[in-house]
Amino acid sequence: MGQALSSGSSQESELFNAVQVGDFETVEALLKREPNLVHHKTLYDRQSALHIAAANDQIEILAMLLEKSVNPDVVNRHKQTPLMLAAMHGKISCVKKLVEAGANILRFDSLHGRTCLHYAAYYGHSDCLQAILSAARSSPVAVSWGYARFVNIRDARGATPLHLAARQRRPGCVHILLDNGALVCASTGGYGCPGSTPLHLAARGGSLDCIRKLLAWGADRLQRDASGRIPYVVALKFKHRACAALLNPSSAEPLVWPAPLKFISELNEEAKSLLEQALMEANREREKNILKGTAYSLPSPSDSDSGLDDSISEASDTEVCCICFEQICTMEVQDCGHQMCAQCTLSLCCHNKPNPTNASLTPPVCPFCRSTIGRLVVAKIKTYDDADHDIGDVSSSKLRKLRKSRTFSEGSSSFKSLSAVGSFSKMSSRGSDRIAAENEWIDKP
Fold first, then answer.
1. Could you give the angle at the alpha carbon of 41 between the alpha carbons of 35 and 42, nearest 5°?
2. Does residue 172 lie in a domain region?
3. Which residue stretches does the UniProt record annotate as biased composition, category Basic and acidic residues (predicted)?
Protein backbone atom coordinates (compact mmCIF):
# COMPACT_ATOMS: atom_id res chain seq x y z
CA MET A 1 0.00 0.00 0.00
CA GLY A 2 3.12 2.21 0.08
CA GLN A 3 2.64 5.61 1.63
CA ALA A 4 -0.88 4.63 2.69
CA LEU A 5 0.56 2.73 5.65
CA SER A 6 2.25 5.77 7.20
CA SER A 7 0.72 6.28 10.64
CA GLY A 8 1.00 8.45 13.69
CA SER A 9 2.26 5.92 16.24
CA SER A 10 4.44 2.83 16.36
CA GLN A 11 1.48 0.69 17.44
CA GLU A 12 -0.60 1.84 14.46
CA SER A 13 2.28 1.21 12.09
CA GLU A 14 2.84 -2.24 13.53
CA LEU A 15 -0.87 -3.06 13.19
CA PHE A 16 -1.17 -1.93 9.58
CA ASN A 17 2.01 -3.73 8.53
CA ALA A 18 0.86 -6.91 10.27
CA VAL A 19 -2.52 -6.73 8.50
CA GLN A 20 -0.82 -6.24 5.15
CA VAL A 21 1.43 -9.31 5.46
CA GLY A 22 -1.25 -11.43 7.12
CA ASP A 23 0.35 -11.79 10.56
CA PHE A 24 -2.80 -12.89 12.36
CA GLU A 25 -1.17 -13.49 15.76
CA THR A 26 0.38 -10.02 15.86
CA VAL A 27 -2.87 -8.35 14.84
CA GLU A 28 -4.79 -10.30 17.46
CA ALA A 29 -2.25 -9.45 20.18
CA LEU A 30 -2.22 -5.74 19.32
CA LEU A 31 -6.00 -5.47 19.32
CA LYS A 32 -6.23 -7.38 22.57
CA ARG A 33 -3.79 -4.96 24.16
CA GLU A 34 -5.31 -1.84 22.58
CA PRO A 35 -8.88 -2.48 21.28
CA ASN A 36 -9.32 1.08 19.99
CA LEU A 37 -6.63 0.50 17.36
CA VAL A 38 -9.28 -1.22 15.25
CA HIS A 39 -10.79 2.21 14.51
CA HIS A 40 -7.54 3.99 13.64
CA LYS A 41 -6.63 5.00 10.08
CA THR A 42 -3.49 5.84 8.16
CA LEU A 43 -2.54 9.51 8.06
CA TYR A 44 -2.66 10.33 4.37
CA ASP A 45 -5.15 8.02 2.62
CA ARG A 46 -7.19 7.37 5.77
CA GLN A 47 -7.14 3.61 5.18
CA SER A 48 -8.47 1.46 7.99
CA ALA A 49 -7.20 -1.99 8.88
CA LEU A 50 -10.28 -3.36 7.11
CA HIS A 51 -9.30 -1.57 3.87
CA ILE A 52 -5.79 -3.00 4.04
CA ALA A 53 -7.04 -6.52 4.76
CA ALA A 54 -9.54 -6.37 1.86
CA ALA A 55 -6.99 -5.05 -0.63
CA ASN A 56 -4.41 -7.69 0.31
CA ASP A 57 -6.76 -10.69 0.51
CA GLN A 58 -6.17 -11.28 4.22
CA ILE A 59 -9.48 -13.04 4.70
CA GLU A 60 -8.84 -14.35 8.22
CA ILE A 61 -7.91 -10.91 9.52
CA LEU A 62 -10.82 -9.35 7.65
CA ALA A 63 -13.22 -11.84 9.25
CA MET A 64 -11.77 -11.12 12.70
CA LEU A 65 -12.18 -7.36 12.23
CA LEU A 66 -15.79 -7.80 11.13
CA GLU A 67 -16.46 -9.95 14.19
CA LYS A 68 -15.25 -7.03 16.30
CA SER A 69 -18.15 -4.98 14.88
CA VAL A 70 -16.01 -2.93 12.54
CA ASN A 71 -18.24 -1.05 10.11
CA PRO A 72 -17.98 -2.86 6.73
CA ASP A 73 -18.68 0.46 4.98
CA VAL A 74 -15.91 2.47 6.63
CA VAL A 75 -14.47 4.90 4.05
CA ASN A 76 -11.01 6.21 3.27
CA ARG A 77 -9.95 9.62 2.02
CA HIS A 78 -11.65 9.06 -1.36
CA LYS A 79 -14.83 7.65 0.21
CA GLN A 80 -13.83 4.18 -0.98
CA THR A 81 -15.13 1.25 1.05
CA PRO A 82 -13.26 -2.02 1.72
CA LEU A 83 -15.64 -3.67 -0.76
CA MET A 84 -14.51 -1.29 -3.50
CA LEU A 85 -10.85 -2.08 -2.83
CA ALA A 86 -11.54 -5.82 -2.77
CA ALA A 87 -13.34 -5.52 -6.14
CA MET A 88 -10.53 -3.35 -7.51
CA HIS A 89 -7.85 -5.91 -6.64
CA GLY A 90 -9.93 -8.96 -7.51
CA LYS A 91 -10.05 -10.46 -4.01
CA ILE A 92 -13.15 -12.58 -4.45
CA SER A 93 -13.09 -14.19 -0.99
CA CYS A 94 -13.01 -10.75 0.63
CA VAL A 95 -15.79 -9.50 -1.68
CA LYS A 96 -18.03 -12.38 -0.64
CA LYS A 97 -17.22 -11.95 3.05
CA LEU A 98 -17.94 -8.22 2.99
CA VAL A 99 -21.20 -8.72 1.12
CA GLU A 100 -22.16 -11.39 3.63
CA ALA A 101 -21.39 -8.91 6.43
CA GLY A 102 -23.85 -6.42 4.92
CA ALA A 103 -21.54 -4.10 2.99
CA ASN A 104 -23.51 -1.57 0.97
CA ILE A 105 -23.07 -2.25 -2.76
CA LEU A 106 -24.67 1.11 -3.59
CA ARG A 107 -22.00 3.33 -2.04
CA PHE A 108 -20.29 5.82 -4.39
CA ASP A 109 -16.71 7.02 -4.00
CA SER A 110 -15.72 10.68 -4.25
CA LEU A 111 -12.95 10.09 -6.81
CA HIS A 112 -15.06 9.23 -9.86
CA GLY A 113 -18.50 8.62 -8.34
CA ARG A 114 -18.17 4.86 -8.84
CA THR A 115 -19.57 1.85 -7.02
CA CYS A 116 -18.01 -1.53 -6.35
CA LEU A 117 -19.69 -2.75 -9.57
CA HIS A 118 -17.79 -0.12 -11.58
CA TYR A 119 -14.53 -1.19 -9.93
CA ALA A 120 -15.01 -4.87 -10.72
CA ALA A 121 -15.88 -4.09 -14.36
CA TYR A 122 -13.07 -1.56 -14.87
CA TYR A 123 -10.36 -3.85 -13.53
CA GLY A 124 -11.74 -6.93 -15.23
CA HIS A 125 -12.52 -9.18 -12.27
CA SER A 126 -15.46 -11.15 -13.63
CA ASP A 127 -15.79 -13.35 -10.52
CA CYS A 128 -16.13 -10.28 -8.30
CA LEU A 129 -18.55 -8.74 -10.78
CA GLN A 130 -20.72 -11.85 -10.72
CA ALA A 131 -20.66 -12.02 -6.92
CA ILE A 132 -21.79 -8.39 -6.62
CA LEU A 133 -24.58 -8.89 -9.17
CA SER A 134 -25.73 -12.05 -7.38
CA ALA A 135 -25.82 -10.10 -4.11
CA ALA A 136 -27.86 -7.35 -5.76
CA ARG A 137 -30.51 -9.85 -6.87
CA SER A 138 -31.14 -11.02 -3.32
CA SER A 139 -30.63 -7.74 -1.46
CA PRO A 140 -32.93 -4.79 -0.74
CA VAL A 141 -31.28 -3.06 -3.72
CA ALA A 142 -33.36 -5.15 -6.11
CA VAL A 143 -36.55 -4.06 -4.35
CA SER A 144 -35.89 -0.42 -3.49
CA TRP A 145 -33.66 0.60 -6.38
CA GLY A 146 -34.36 -1.99 -9.04
CA TYR A 147 -31.94 -4.63 -10.30
CA ALA A 148 -31.87 -3.38 -13.90
CA ARG A 149 -31.15 0.14 -12.67
CA PHE A 150 -28.26 -1.15 -10.56
CA VAL A 151 -26.70 -3.04 -13.50
CA ASN A 152 -26.80 0.20 -15.51
CA ILE A 153 -25.70 2.50 -12.70
CA ARG A 154 -23.68 5.50 -13.89
CA ASP A 155 -20.57 7.10 -12.41
CA ALA A 156 -19.95 10.84 -12.13
CA ARG A 157 -19.06 11.05 -15.85
CA GLY A 158 -22.05 9.08 -17.07
CA ALA A 159 -20.29 5.75 -17.60
CA THR A 160 -22.04 2.47 -16.80
CA PRO A 161 -20.04 -0.62 -15.80
CA LEU A 162 -20.51 -1.87 -19.39
CA HIS A 163 -18.85 1.28 -20.77
CA LEU A 164 -15.85 0.75 -18.49
CA ALA A 165 -15.54 -2.96 -19.30
CA ALA A 166 -15.71 -2.28 -23.05
CA ARG A 167 -13.13 0.53 -22.88
CA GLN A 168 -10.74 -1.54 -20.77
CA ARG A 169 -10.95 -4.61 -23.04
CA ARG A 170 -12.73 -6.90 -20.56
CA PRO A 171 -14.80 -9.33 -22.69
CA GLY A 172 -15.62 -11.60 -19.74
CA CYS A 173 -17.13 -8.70 -17.82
CA VAL A 174 -18.88 -7.42 -20.96
CA HIS A 175 -20.60 -10.80 -21.36
CA ILE A 176 -21.71 -10.99 -17.72
CA LEU A 177 -23.13 -7.46 -17.79
CA LEU A 178 -25.00 -8.02 -21.06
CA ASP A 179 -26.37 -11.28 -19.71
CA ASN A 180 -27.67 -9.39 -16.67
CA GLY A 181 -29.48 -6.67 -18.57
CA ALA A 182 -26.85 -4.01 -19.29
CA LEU A 183 -28.05 -1.57 -21.97
CA VAL A 184 -25.91 -2.27 -25.01
CA CYS A 185 -26.63 1.08 -26.72
CA ALA A 186 -26.47 3.41 -23.70
CA SER A 187 -24.55 6.66 -24.28
CA THR A 188 -22.04 8.19 -21.87
CA GLY A 189 -22.05 11.69 -20.46
CA GLY A 190 -18.50 13.02 -20.15
CA TYR A 191 -16.63 9.71 -20.14
CA GLY A 192 -14.49 9.29 -23.25
CA CYS A 193 -16.08 11.25 -26.07
CA PRO A 194 -19.53 12.43 -24.93
CA GLY A 195 -22.30 10.26 -26.30
CA SER A 196 -20.10 7.21 -26.74
CA THR A 197 -21.75 3.79 -26.59
CA PRO A 198 -19.97 0.66 -25.34
CA LEU A 199 -19.31 -0.17 -29.02
CA HIS A 200 -17.55 3.19 -29.55
CA LEU A 201 -15.38 2.51 -26.51
CA ALA A 202 -14.57 -1.06 -27.56
CA ALA A 203 -13.61 0.27 -31.00
CA ARG A 204 -11.35 2.82 -29.35
CA GLY A 205 -9.73 0.14 -27.19
CA GLY A 206 -9.34 -2.22 -30.14
CA SER A 207 -10.86 -5.29 -28.50
CA LEU A 208 -12.23 -7.72 -31.09
CA ASP A 209 -13.64 -9.92 -28.32
CA CYS A 210 -15.61 -7.05 -26.79
CA ILE A 211 -16.83 -5.91 -30.20
CA ARG A 212 -18.08 -9.35 -31.22
CA LYS A 213 -19.94 -9.75 -27.92
CA LEU A 214 -21.54 -6.31 -28.17
CA LEU A 215 -22.60 -6.93 -31.77
CA ALA A 216 -24.03 -10.33 -30.83
CA TRP A 217 -26.21 -8.61 -28.21
CA GLY A 218 -27.56 -6.03 -30.64
CA ALA A 219 -25.15 -3.07 -30.52
CA ASP A 220 -25.96 -0.60 -33.29
CA ARG A 221 -23.07 0.00 -35.70
CA LEU A 222 -24.72 3.17 -36.98
CA GLN A 223 -25.26 4.93 -33.62
CA ARG A 224 -23.32 8.20 -33.43
CA ASP A 225 -21.55 9.89 -30.54
CA ALA A 226 -21.79 13.62 -29.78
CA SER A 227 -19.20 14.32 -32.47
CA GLY A 228 -21.23 12.48 -35.09
CA ARG A 229 -18.88 9.50 -35.34
CA ILE A 230 -19.99 5.89 -35.72
CA PRO A 231 -17.85 3.14 -34.09
CA TYR A 232 -16.29 2.31 -37.49
CA VAL A 233 -14.78 5.81 -37.70
CA VAL A 234 -13.47 5.55 -34.13
CA ALA A 235 -11.75 2.22 -34.88
CA LEU A 236 -10.09 3.72 -37.96
CA LYS A 237 -8.95 6.79 -36.03
CA PHE A 238 -7.15 4.63 -33.49
CA LYS A 239 -5.77 2.33 -36.23
CA HIS A 240 -7.65 -0.80 -35.15
CA ARG A 241 -8.28 -1.94 -38.71
CA ALA A 242 -9.48 -5.45 -37.93
CA CYS A 243 -12.11 -3.97 -35.62
CA ALA A 244 -13.01 -1.43 -38.30
CA ALA A 245 -13.58 -4.22 -40.82
CA LEU A 246 -16.21 -5.81 -38.54
CA LEU A 247 -17.77 -2.44 -37.72
CA ASN A 248 -17.98 -1.29 -41.33
CA PRO A 249 -21.69 -0.67 -42.02
CA SER A 250 -21.26 -2.17 -45.49
CA SER A 251 -20.15 -5.55 -44.09
CA ALA A 252 -22.63 -8.31 -43.31
CA GLU A 253 -24.82 -7.89 -40.23
CA PRO A 254 -24.02 -10.29 -37.38
CA LEU A 255 -26.54 -12.64 -35.86
CA VAL A 256 -28.06 -11.13 -32.73
CA TRP A 257 -28.95 -12.97 -29.53
CA PRO A 258 -32.79 -13.23 -29.60
CA ALA A 259 -33.22 -11.71 -26.15
CA PRO A 260 -36.77 -10.31 -26.72
CA LEU A 261 -38.19 -13.83 -27.07
CA LYS A 262 -39.71 -14.96 -23.79
CA PHE A 263 -38.55 -18.57 -23.97
CA ILE A 264 -34.95 -17.40 -24.44
CA SER A 265 -35.01 -15.65 -21.06
CA GLU A 266 -36.29 -18.85 -19.45
CA LEU A 267 -33.49 -21.10 -20.75
CA ASN A 268 -31.50 -23.03 -18.18
CA GLU A 269 -27.77 -22.36 -18.09
CA GLU A 270 -26.79 -25.46 -20.08
CA ALA A 271 -29.22 -24.78 -22.92
CA LYS A 272 -28.31 -21.11 -22.96
CA SER A 273 -24.61 -21.95 -23.17
CA LEU A 274 -25.19 -24.22 -26.17
CA LEU A 275 -27.12 -21.54 -28.05
CA GLU A 276 -24.69 -18.76 -27.18
CA GLN A 277 -21.79 -20.86 -28.40
CA ALA A 278 -23.65 -21.53 -31.65
CA LEU A 279 -24.29 -17.82 -32.14
CA MET A 280 -20.66 -16.88 -31.52
CA GLU A 281 -19.49 -19.61 -33.91
CA ALA A 282 -21.85 -18.35 -36.60
CA ASN A 283 -20.54 -14.82 -36.22
CA ARG A 284 -17.01 -16.17 -36.24
CA GLU A 285 -17.67 -17.55 -39.72
CA ARG A 286 -18.96 -14.12 -40.74
CA GLU A 287 -15.77 -12.52 -39.41
CA LYS A 288 -13.62 -14.94 -41.38
CA ASN A 289 -15.41 -14.00 -44.57
CA ILE A 290 -15.07 -10.29 -43.86
CA LEU A 291 -11.37 -10.51 -43.00
CA LYS A 292 -10.48 -13.11 -45.66
CA GLY A 293 -7.53 -12.12 -47.76
CA THR A 294 -6.57 -9.20 -45.53
CA ALA A 295 -3.65 -8.78 -43.17
CA TYR A 296 -6.11 -8.94 -40.30
CA SER A 297 -7.39 -12.49 -40.69
CA LEU A 298 -8.34 -14.27 -37.49
CA PRO A 299 -5.81 -16.62 -35.82
CA SER A 300 -5.84 -20.23 -36.86
CA PRO A 301 -7.66 -22.71 -34.60
CA SER A 302 -5.82 -23.97 -31.56
CA ASP A 303 -4.52 -27.51 -31.28
CA SER A 304 -7.58 -28.48 -29.26
CA ASP A 305 -9.74 -27.64 -32.28
CA SER A 306 -7.72 -29.64 -34.77
CA GLY A 307 -10.31 -32.40 -34.61
CA LEU A 308 -12.90 -30.40 -36.52
CA ASP A 309 -12.31 -32.46 -39.67
CA ASP A 310 -14.96 -34.65 -41.11
CA SER A 311 -15.39 -37.52 -38.64
CA ILE A 312 -18.68 -39.02 -39.62
CA SER A 313 -17.79 -42.39 -38.16
CA GLU A 314 -17.43 -40.95 -34.66
CA ALA A 315 -20.77 -39.13 -34.79
CA SER A 316 -22.67 -41.78 -36.67
CA ASP A 317 -23.91 -43.51 -33.51
CA THR A 318 -25.88 -40.43 -32.45
CA GLU A 319 -28.96 -38.74 -33.85
CA VAL A 320 -28.10 -36.13 -36.48
CA CYS A 321 -30.18 -32.98 -36.93
CA CYS A 322 -32.79 -33.54 -39.66
CA ILE A 323 -32.56 -29.90 -40.79
CA CYS A 324 -28.86 -29.49 -41.55
CA PHE A 325 -27.78 -33.16 -41.50
CA GLU A 326 -24.49 -31.98 -39.98
CA GLN A 327 -24.75 -31.54 -36.24
CA ILE A 328 -25.87 -33.73 -33.37
CA CYS A 329 -29.30 -32.84 -31.99
CA THR A 330 -28.65 -30.89 -28.79
CA MET A 331 -31.88 -28.90 -28.33
CA GLU A 332 -35.43 -30.12 -27.83
CA VAL A 333 -38.78 -28.33 -28.05
CA GLN A 334 -40.31 -29.24 -24.72
CA ASP A 335 -43.96 -29.34 -25.76
CA CYS A 336 -43.69 -31.52 -28.86
CA GLY A 337 -40.37 -33.26 -28.19
CA HIS A 338 -38.87 -32.55 -31.62
CA GLN A 339 -35.09 -32.17 -31.64
CA MET A 340 -32.58 -30.20 -33.66
CA CYS A 341 -29.04 -28.92 -33.27
CA ALA A 342 -28.20 -25.65 -31.49
CA GLN A 343 -27.14 -24.00 -34.75
CA CYS A 344 -30.46 -24.67 -36.49
CA THR A 345 -32.38 -23.66 -33.36
CA LEU A 346 -30.54 -20.37 -33.33
CA SER A 347 -31.09 -19.86 -37.03
CA LEU A 348 -34.80 -20.40 -36.42
CA CYS A 349 -34.89 -17.84 -33.58
CA CYS A 350 -32.80 -15.21 -35.38
CA HIS A 351 -34.43 -15.58 -38.80
CA ASN A 352 -35.15 -12.15 -40.34
CA LYS A 353 -33.87 -10.40 -37.20
CA PRO A 354 -30.51 -8.81 -38.10
CA ASN A 355 -30.73 -6.28 -35.27
CA PRO A 356 -32.92 -5.58 -32.24
CA THR A 357 -34.69 -2.58 -33.80
CA ASN A 358 -36.79 -4.85 -35.99
CA ALA A 359 -36.91 -7.87 -33.70
CA SER A 360 -40.27 -9.57 -33.64
CA LEU A 361 -41.65 -10.70 -30.32
CA THR A 362 -43.64 -13.46 -32.03
CA PRO A 363 -42.11 -16.79 -30.98
CA PRO A 364 -40.98 -19.10 -33.80
CA VAL A 365 -42.71 -22.37 -34.54
CA CYS A 366 -41.35 -25.90 -34.60
CA PRO A 367 -40.26 -26.69 -38.19
CA PHE A 368 -41.56 -30.25 -37.86
CA CYS A 369 -45.07 -29.85 -36.44
CA ARG A 370 -45.57 -26.05 -36.73
CA SER A 371 -46.53 -25.70 -33.07
CA THR A 372 -45.36 -22.59 -31.23
CA ILE A 373 -42.05 -23.00 -29.42
CA GLY A 374 -42.78 -22.17 -25.80
CA ARG A 375 -39.73 -23.65 -24.11
CA LEU A 376 -36.42 -25.18 -25.14
CA VAL A 377 -34.48 -27.75 -23.14
CA VAL A 378 -31.25 -29.65 -23.63
CA ALA A 379 -32.02 -32.74 -25.68
CA LYS A 380 -31.60 -36.31 -24.56
CA ILE A 381 -30.09 -38.06 -27.53
CA LYS A 382 -30.62 -41.64 -28.61
CA THR A 383 -27.86 -43.86 -29.87
CA TYR A 384 -28.55 -46.80 -32.11
CA ASP A 385 -28.71 -49.18 -29.17
CA ASP A 386 -31.77 -47.15 -28.01
CA ALA A 387 -30.07 -46.03 -24.82
CA ASP A 388 -31.05 -42.55 -23.66
CA HIS A 389 -28.28 -40.22 -22.67
CA ASP A 390 -28.35 -36.64 -21.55
CA ILE A 391 -26.44 -34.43 -23.94
CA GLY A 392 -23.97 -33.69 -21.17
CA ASP A 393 -22.83 -37.33 -21.30
CA VAL A 394 -21.63 -36.97 -24.86
CA SER A 395 -18.02 -35.93 -25.21
CA SER A 396 -17.54 -32.32 -26.21
CA SER A 397 -15.42 -33.44 -29.14
CA LYS A 398 -18.41 -35.29 -30.63
CA LEU A 399 -20.59 -32.23 -30.26
CA ARG A 400 -18.09 -30.24 -32.30
CA LYS A 401 -17.81 -32.64 -35.23
CA LEU A 402 -18.90 -31.15 -38.53
CA ARG A 403 -19.78 -32.82 -41.76
CA LYS A 404 -17.99 -30.71 -44.32
CA SER A 405 -19.64 -32.42 -47.25
CA ARG A 406 -22.68 -30.18 -46.79
CA THR A 407 -23.58 -26.71 -45.56
CA PHE A 408 -26.87 -25.66 -44.05
CA SER A 409 -28.04 -24.39 -47.41
CA GLU A 410 -27.62 -27.88 -48.85
CA GLY A 411 -29.96 -29.48 -46.32
CA SER A 412 -33.54 -30.49 -46.81
CA SER A 413 -35.23 -28.18 -49.29
CA SER A 414 -38.13 -27.80 -46.86
CA PHE A 415 -35.86 -25.95 -44.45
CA LYS A 416 -33.63 -23.93 -46.75
CA SER A 417 -35.18 -20.74 -45.44
CA LEU A 418 -33.75 -21.54 -42.03
CA SER A 419 -30.22 -21.78 -43.31
CA ALA A 420 -29.06 -18.36 -42.20
CA VAL A 421 -26.18 -19.54 -40.11
CA GLY A 422 -23.90 -21.29 -42.65
CA SER A 423 -21.02 -23.54 -41.77
CA PHE A 424 -19.64 -23.34 -38.26
CA SER A 425 -16.22 -23.70 -36.72
CA LYS A 426 -15.04 -23.63 -33.14
CA MET A 427 -14.59 -20.17 -31.79
CA SER A 428 -11.43 -19.77 -29.76
CA SER A 429 -12.18 -17.67 -26.72
CA ARG A 430 -9.63 -15.23 -25.55
CA GLY A 431 -8.72 -14.37 -22.04
CA SER A 432 -9.35 -10.90 -20.81
CA ASP A 433 -6.26 -8.74 -21.21
CA ARG A 434 -5.20 -7.12 -18.01
CA ILE A 435 -4.43 -3.46 -18.62
CA ALA A 436 -2.63 -1.22 -16.15
CA ALA A 437 -5.17 -0.64 -13.46
CA GLU A 438 -3.76 1.70 -10.89
CA ASN A 439 -3.80 4.91 -12.97
CA GLU A 440 -6.97 6.54 -14.23
CA TRP A 441 -5.24 8.41 -17.07
CA ILE A 442 -6.68 5.96 -19.56
CA ASP A 443 -10.13 7.33 -18.80
CA LYS A 444 -9.22 10.62 -20.40
CA PRO A 445 -10.66 11.22 -23.87
1. 135
2. no
3. 431-445
User: How far apart are alpha carbons 245 and 264 in whole angstroms?
Assistant: 30
Residue range 167-176, pLDDT digits in tens: 999 999 999 9
Q: What does the alpha-carbon distance between residue 139 and residue 404 come to, in Å, rounded to a whole number?
A: 50
86, 95 contact by CB (below 8 A) = yes
Residue 385 belongs to some domain of the structure: yes
Average pLDDT, the chain: 80
Q: How many CA atoms lie within 13 A of 77 on its CB side?
A: 8
- Asked if 440 and 122 touch (Cβ cutoff 8 Å), the reply is no
**In the chain, count of helices (H) and strands (E)?**
21, 5
Instruction: Give the predicted TM-score (pTM) of the model.
Output: 0.78
Range of the domain at 419: 316-423
The count of domains in the chain is 1
Beta-carbon count within 10 A of 18 CB: 22
Closest listed residue to residue 439, CA positions, set 16, 196, 88 = 88
Q: What is the DSSP letter of 378?
A: E
The verdict on residue 182 lying in a domain is: no
The CA distances from residue 51 to 54, 121, 132, in Å, are 5, 20, 18
The upper half-sphere exposure of residue 92, i.e. CA atoms within 13 Å in the direction of its Cβ, equals 10
